[in-house]
Amino acid sequence: MSGLFDVQGVRARFPALSQFQDDRPVVFFDNPAGTQCPQAVIDAVSGYLTSQNANRGGAFTTSRRSDAMLADAHQAMADLLGAASPAEIVFGANMTTLTFGVSRALARTLVAGDEIVVTHLDHDANIAPWLLVAEDVGAVVRWVDIRPDDCTLDLESLARQLSPRTRIVAVGSASNAVGTINDVRSIVRMAHAAGALVFVDAVQYAPHGVIDVQDLGCDLLACSAYKFFGPHVGVLYGRLDLLERLTAYKVRAAGDRPPDKFETGTQNHEGIAGAMAAVEYLASLADEPGPESSGPAPRRARLRSALSRLEQHERLLCARLLEGLADVPGVRVWGIAGPARVRERVPTVSFTLDGRRPTDVTTRLARAGIFATAGHFYAVALIRRLGLEPAGGLVRVGLAHYNTVDEVDRLIAELRAIGRSA
Question: Does any domain span residue 287?
Answer without folding.
Answer: no
